[in-house]
């Protein structure tokens, strides 16, 4: 019984996640100039790509008709689109562009974007976290 309830909880969470993604995509269709929505779609794809292989397998079994992104390219597309729409609008977006380039093995681009992110002004706690994350990864590249 406990296993069935847990599985239903996972399925419900996964369905909600897809509903959130679909709402972001619809919102972006209605307002394709919204950098924040583009960033949020990028974060959704990045987060799914960060799931462990076991989590991805479980999701693929729960949603046989739903395909999971297999690369970070989709996330990068939205992060770059957000940056094109409103350059420098969000420190975390700049950082995630660098992180994503690193994930796909493009070290030169990763260093370029992480250097930008590491030099972003710190105006709040979110900026501080994004700058620290960028500096940390940059020091390892």
If you had to describe this structure to a student in words, what would you say it looks like?
The chain starts with a helix and ends with a helix. The chain is globular, with a radius of gyration of 17 Å. Helix content is 77%, strand content 0%. The chain is mainly alpha-helical and 141 residues long. The longest helix has 29 residues. Helix 4 packs antiparallel against helix 5 and helix 5 packs antiparallel against helix 6.
Question: What is the topology?
Answer:
Blueprint lengths: L1 H29 L4 H15 L3 H10 L10 H13 L5 H13 L3 H12 L6 H16 L1
Helix pairs in contact: 1-2, 2-4, 4-5, 5-6, 5-7, 6-7
Tally of DSSP helical segments:
7
Shape: globular
Q: What are the segments in which pLDDT stays under 50 over at least 5 consecutive residues?
A: 1-8
Average predicted confidence as pLDDT: 85
Structural class: mainly alpha
User: How many strand elements?
Assistant: 0
The separation of the N and C termini measures 47 Å
Strand content: under 5%
Structure summary:
The chain has 141 residues and is mainly α.
Keyword list:
77% helix, 141 residues, 0% strand, mainly alpha
